[in-house]
Structure formats: C-alpha cells, structure tokens
Amino acid sequence: MTKLNRRRLFAVIMTLFAVGALASVAYANHSWGGYHWARTSNPFTLKLGDNVTSAWDAYLAGASADWSQSNVLDTTIVAGGVKSPKNCRPTAGRIEVCNAKYGNNGWLGLAQIWITGGVHISQGIAKMNDTYFNTSQYNTPAWRRLVMCQEVAHAFGLDHQDENFNNPNLGSCMDYTGDPDGPLSNEHPNAHDFEQLGIIYAHLDTTTTVGAGVAPRNGKANLDNPTEWGQVVRQDARGRSSLYERDLGGGRKVVTFVFWAD
C-alpha cells in the first residue's frame, strides 16, 4: 500500500470513529433541561414515597431496584407522605409516587418537578393513571413497568432517549413505544440511561436539596389541571404537548412531563 493510500485509509477510519463518537454522545444526551438534585457527594440516596396500591407495589419496587444500579444515585422506598393519592402533593426533598383514577384526561403517566435556583430539583411527584391501567390495553406488566420506570426517572432529571412510537425499541424505559415488551423490552433502564445519569450528576454542589425539610413557595400548588401547567415547551412526535413549564419567578418553576395514552 502506498503512503498516499495509507493516509486516505487513516482519514476514513478517523472520520468513521468521529461520527460514531458523536452518535454515541447524541444518543446518550437525554438530560431533562439540566435539572438535577443538588447534593454535596455521590452516590446520594433519594426517597421514593410509596403512595401506591398493592397492584403497583411490585412495579415501584422494581423501578427502585433498577435505578439504584446507577453509580451516582440510590433510591429507597419509604412510607408515602401524601394524604390522598388522588391529589398526590409533593414533599420537599423527595419523590412522591402515586396511583389513582385520575380520569379520562388522555395521560397514562405524569411527572412533575419543582425547580429552585434555575436548575435544582427540590421535590417531585410521579403519577400513574388507573383510569387507563384498568383497561385491557394497558393492564399488563410490561406497560406498568415501562410507565413506572419512566415517570420516576423524570424526577431524577432524565429525559427520553427517543419519542418516536413507530421505530424499533431501544431497550430502555426512556424510549416511547407502543409495544413495551418488545423486542427489545422497554421495561427497564439501559446502559445509556445510566451513562446520562453519570453525566448529569458528574459535578457536585455546595448545598443539597435532597431530604430538605422546607418546601419551596408554591410547593403545594394544585397542578392537577393542565391549565395550571404553564407554557408548552415541547410536543411529542405525534404533535401532542408533552412538556410544560410554569414560571414561579425568582428562578423557581414547576416542570411537567406527560406520557399520553394512544
């Protein structure tokens, strides 16, 4: 092989390597707006308030075990802190997880996080809508695992990997799909989800919002009604509004992620 041909071959190899590296970075880049829990060390432990019925206990336990495989965070299930799962009010410093018949409002699951200082999560909720999960279409282990896994992870600051319902499954619960058990199964996190958590929580903060005992102002606001969710920030691949932000002023806001039913 001539020197010129060797140079050309080397250039082609380096180009392919660069493209592959960029694709890998893009694939793993699914942070939710840079939002994260403030903390002073890793790994840190987030409490998941158990406000779910027995029909959901195994799925909450499974999601907690799955996400605790991360190198930067652990989760622990504690007694729920809400008076009524139907309302599912947040508790400062942790994530409340609820299920109830929230009505024929179009959504399967919903996650909300309260932000202070522009990017720090101070509390969160994850809700599963039994109005739909009690139907034959969604009352399956695969659908319950997918939605529970995804809504809890949104409260970590994790976004979707993909929002196209019609392409092949990525093997991640952060991937939209109409067929959660696959192939591939979208019922659990995959390596890219853990990679992204590592990126989100690579830095440390000088303060912590984890386990904080004081709720932020407007922390108990009633945000069940979509008219209270604020401005539409993003739509999914089907043109449905999926991400909302309500500005509370002073670097404070509430961010709502909606998982719509078909």
From TrEMBL:
The keyword Metal-binding does not apply. Gene3D superfamilies: Collagenase (Catalytic Domain) (3.40.390.10). The keyword Signal applies. Residues 1-23 form the signal peptide. This is Peptidase M10 metallopeptidase domain-containing protein. It comes from Candidatus Liptonbacteria bacterium RIFCSPHIGHO2_01_FULL_57_28. It comes from the Bacteria. GO terms for molecular function: metallopeptidase activity. InterPro entries: MetalloPept_cat_dom_sf. The lineage of its organism: Bacteria, Candidatus Liptoniibacteriota. Keywords: Signal.
